[in-house]
Amino acid sequence: MTREPRPISSEIAWSTSDRITVRGLDLPGEVLGHMGLADFSFLQLTARRPTPSEARVYEALLLTLVEHGLTPSSLVARMTYAGAPESLQAAVAAGLCGLGTVFVGTTEGSARLLSDALRDDDGTADLDEVAATVVAGFRERKELVPGIGHPLHKPVDPRTPRLFEIAAEEGLSGRYVELMNLVGAEASRSFGRELPVNATGAIGALCCELGLPVRTVRGLGVMARAIGLVGHILEESENPMALEIWQRAEDEATAHLRP
Fold first, then answer.
1. What string of H, E and C letters represents the secondary structure of the chain?
2. Residue 25 β-bridge partners
3. pTM for the complete prediction?
């Protein structure tokens, strides 16, 4: 049986021999020299320019995600580069593959938590009750509440109040931000220990305030962290540590087997 082809279409970009158009804008004439990378990425994701307030909040959350030090993602990028220095893109890709439910991906988890909790909210829901219900559900399922707690930053993740401050300055601190803070407070009370809203929780809340689809939130981490990983790979090429890490791991892990 012959399959009837279905129409395919894209609204993002098109080109001719002398023209490049992205989201309805002329790339050389209306984008280059007129828009920053954050503004342009917002346009790419939403098909509209951000307002000045949205642009400031959006850029702040992207900047927060660029660099996190020698995390597993940056280490695996360095190790991959050590094995294949001819392929910088493979090293970046290797690092990005580790962005999941522990690192960076919790931005998506917290955004989904908030989006689900307020899906039917008409602005009258008691957010204290919503927070209690959310935390109780995670406790019952024996799951970690995404976006709260941090192994190093206690009792406050220093990035969170600054992100929320910027959002408040721009009139973009609404019910999602309020609920995220209440979830952190309820989780701290319920679990009996300090569980501050961390940067990924703050970013998840701000993505909801910006109206970004939940499915795009982890992508923001991918975009931002790619920049950080290129920096780590550049440093690795100039001041390598990957082979030393490999050798130390080999020596220590098998020390008990050696005569």
1. CCCCCCCCCCCCEEEECCEEEECCEEHHHHHCCCCCHHHHHHHHHHCCCCCHHHHHHHHHHHHHHHCCCCCHHHHHHHHHHHHCCCCHHHHHHHHHCCCECCCECHHHHHHHHHHHHCCCCCCCCCHHHHHHHHHHHHHHCCCCCCCECCCCCCCCCCHHHHHHHHHHHCCCCCHHHHHHHHHHHHHHHHHCCCCCECHHHHHHHHHHHCCCCHHHHHHHHHHHHHHHHHHHHHHHHHCCCHHHHHHHHHHHHCHHHCC
2. 22
3. 0.92
For the stretch 59-109, pLDDT in tens is 999 999 999 899 999 999 999 999 999 999 999 999 999 887 777 778 999
d(CA 177, CA 239): 41
The predicted pLDDT at position 101 comes to 75
Let me know: does 209 contact 177? Beta carbons within 8 Å: yes
What separation in angstroms does the CA of 2 have from each of 5, 7, 8, 188? 9, 16, 18, 60
In terms of residues, how long is the chain?
259
Beta bridge partners of 22: 13, 25
Asked whether residue 114 carries a pLDDT value surpassing 90, the answer given is yes
**In the structure encoding, which two tokens stand for residue 38, read together?**
């954050």
Antiparallel, parallel or unpaired: β 19-22 and 13-16:
antiparallel
What letter represents residue 161's amino acid?
P
Give CA 110 to chain center in angstroms: 10
Question: What does the pLDDT look like over 185-219, one tens digit per residue?
Answer: 999 999 888 889 999 999 999 999 999 999 999 99
Contact predicate 159/123, CB 8 Å: no
Q: State the first-to-last Cα distance of the chain, in angstroms, to the nearest integer.
A: 69
